[in-house]
Amino acid sequence: MATASPQRHFVTRLGWLRAAILGANDGLLSTASLMIGVASAAANQDEIVVAGLAGLVAGAMSMAAGEYVSVSSQSDSEAADIARELRELRDDHESELRELTGIYVARGLEEPLARKVAEQLMTHDALAAHTRDELGISDAIAARPVEAALTSAASFAVGAAIPFLTALVAPRSEVAVAIAAVSLISLAVLGAIGAKAGGATMAKAAIRVTFWGAIAMAVTAGIGMLVGTRM
Hints:
Strand content: under 5%
Distance between the termini: 79 Å
Oligomer: single chain
Largest sheet: none
Number of helices: 7
């Protein structure tokens, strides 16, 4: 008898994938746009490089701080929910058993079986059962502020390094064009990689992110030229 081949599911990747791709895209696009704006204002190459480095460091720190605060708030909420659930289990065990039974009935189990499952799970680890099935909190998705902050900062820095390194090696006369070209190609590649890993259409994702990236760079270039002519 042939055994069924394991199915690949992409939904389990979406959390970390979205964060990594978003951070890299943000770092690449914001730093590239900043550097193109500075270059369009007739700045010299050293000033463009300094602007890129400042954008990389400031952006990575901002991403880390923002992610840490956000995930810390989520972690605090989870901890408060778990503490409240622990009190409820201690003070009214029977009500919590009925509540868990109701959850399993809603998922399709018949009431006698649902109650038996709830009883066995609560005998094994009541708090874990309610945390997972009532609150939707598990070790796999629990908030980790430090890990989230470091991941966001690293992904932003990786993306921002692309236009920064491009500015270091490109001729001054063509630095803005080089940054734009390399950054748009990189955005398309990132979009395609994210779509591929998530099981979506690669071409559509690449076109979408490249289109909006081009608009952002064009706007900052226009602002740079406008400011440069008035200085």
